[in-house]
Amino acid sequence: QVQLMESGGGLVQPGGSLRLSCVASRSIFSFNIMAWHRQAPGKERELVAHITRGGISNYADFAEGRFTISRDIVKNTLYLRMNNLKPEDTAVYYCTNDLNNWGKGTLVTVSS
């Protein structure tokens, strides 16, 4: 069973930035895809961004230009850099992979 552990969430003002991290219990290069999803209060879970084993990344429309997904294979860590955060980005952010493993999530709150 692969374990994924997210961190880096917190309270940030609108326009601010955060970097989320997700550490995997085994090499992230073994996964075809790693991704970030989020779930806002009262809403369905949605895909934020994903990155393939080959390093190709894709973003949801709301994340394009503001968020950057990246990885450190040596550290078995997936990242999500989020800039120009908006109140509507408030959500629990989850790290996942193509084996359908999920972390417990990290809460991001964007508020003044």
3D architecture notes:
There is one protein chain. With 112 residues, the protein is mainly beta. Helix content is 0%, strand content 49%. Strands 2-10-9-4-5-6 form a six-stranded mixed beta sheet, with no helix packed on it. It has a four-stranded antiparallel beta sheet with strand order 1-3-8-7, with no helix packed on it. The termini are far apart. The model has no long low-confidence stretch (mean pLDDT 97).
Number-wise, the strands total 10
Cα shape: globular
Q: What strand line-up does the widest sheet have? A: 2-10-9-4-5-6
Average the pLDDT over all residues and give the rounded result: 97
How many H/I helical runs?
0
What's the helix and strand layout?
Elements: E1 4-7, E2 10-12, E3 18-24, E4 33-39, E5 46-52, E6 57-59, E7 67-72, E8 77-82, E9 91-97, E10 106-110
Parallel strand pairs: 2-10
Antiparallel strand pairs: 1-3, 3-8, 4-5, 4-9, 5-6, 7-8, 9-10
Question: What's the short version?
Answer:
The chain has 112 residues and is mainly β. The protein has strands spanning 4-7, 10-12, 18-24, 33-39, 46-52, 57-59, 67-72, 77-82, 91-97, 106-110.
